[in-house]
Amino acid sequence: MKAIALTTYGGPEVLREMELPTPEAGPGEVRIRVHAAAVNPTDVMLRTGGHAPRMTDVPPPFVPGMDAAGVIDQIGPGVDGRLSVGQRVVAIVMFTRPRGGAYAEHVVVPAESVVPAPAGTDHAEASTLLMNAATARLALDTLALPEGATVAVTGATGAVGGYAVELAKADGLTVVADAAPHDRDLVRGFGADHVVDRGTDVAARIRKLAPDGVPGLVDGSDQREEAVPAVADGGALVALRGWQGPAERGVTVIPVIVASVRTDTALLDTLRLQAEQGVLSLRVAKVLPASDAAEAHRLLEAGGLRGRLVLDFS
Q1: How many other β-carbons are positioned within 10 Å of the β-carbon of residue 266?
Q2: Which of 94, 216, 242, 283 has the greatest number of C-beta atoms within 10 Å?
Q3: pLDDT tens track of the chain, all 314 residues?
Q4: What is its EC number (predicted)?
Q5: Read out DSSP for 62-87?
Q6: What is the largest CA-CA distance in the chain?
């Protein structure tokens, strides 16, 4: 099968089109013929060596990608009747395993990590859902704020941030989010109640709206210490890239990782339903041929995207 992989860490140029063995579905697994794979910042971290400590037992080549959309073409023993051959699906794929990630024509994943593709979406749109929406869901569940409470979201124009705003509004929370001036309408469209200017002073701007601070903050832009002053005494900040603090005033910093919910089928299927219902907006910035994966990584690192880049494996 065709895959996009790397044998050494480095810049986008290390991504190569390779022929790799087509995997077979084992017990409790399904094989997906991938049509689209979303390109996420964590894929860049893999390419540059950021995930190397988690992959000491995984030999190269390394195949990036955690978001796959396609069609089931093989079902292993012991999989219940929820899934079927020929079904359009989406899946979270763990690239830290020997089989690699979603940048491939075929992936084999646990059946629990697979749910139907949202109705009315194409493969590219569907591929942008699970990893980022599940991360946002996990972040909000970790904060566990009561209905009516206020949550702040940094990086609200990004995939995780945008989903966090939409899910928070669906949960009945009041949302303060950040945006550049030209993105204010976009973030308001996600449902944010208040939009402040993004940047290093975002905490001070949030404090102008919530003088005592907010009880919870989802740090989608990874601002870490810069975002902590926005949080109320005894509140919590959810970090998405492993930061653990320290913080002052009794603020708790809680790192979350989407791998912890990758087999939570009920959570993943709820996100699928929310995409169908329009609660979640599936945003595609650009679709590129799989062979242009290096260019996709260059575009992602250049910034300024509104939506996800998607690699086409169809």
Answers
A1: 9
A2: 216
A3: 999 999 999 999 999 999 999 999 999 999 999 999 999 999 999 999 999 998 999 999 999 999 999 999 999 999 999 999 999 999 999 999 999 999 999 999 999 999 999 999 999 999 999 999 999 999 999 999 999 999 999 999 999 999 999 999 999 999 999 999 999 999 999 999 999 999 999 999 999 999 999 999 999 999 999 999 999 999 999 999 889 989 999 999 999 999 999 999 999 999 999 999 999 999 999 999 999 999 999 999 998 889 999 999 99
A4: 1.-.-.-
A5: B---SEEEEEEEEE-TT--TT--TT-
A6: 58
Judged on CB neighbours under 10 Å (0-12, 13-18, 19+), 269 is middle
Is 176 in contact with 165 (CB distance < 8 Å)? Answer: no
Residues 287 and 241 in one domain: no
- Identify the burial level of 306 via C-beta atoms within 10 angstroms of its C-beta, where 0-12 means exposed, 13-18 middle and 19 or more buried: middle
Quick check: 90 and 117 in contact, CB under 8 A? yes
Residue located via tokens 């404090």: 207
CA-to-CA dists, residue 105 to 8, 98, 123, 243, angstroms = 21, 16, 13, 34
CATH number for the domain that contains residue 226: 3.40.50.720
Both tokens of 292, joined, read: 């242009």
First to last CA, the chain: 12
- Check whether residue 215 and residue 140 sit in a common domain: yes
Dist. CA 230–CA 208, nearest whole Å? 10
The two beta strands, 150-154 and 174-179, are parallel
Tell me the residue length of the chain. Answer: 314
Total structural domains in the chain?
2
Is residue 159 in a domain? yes
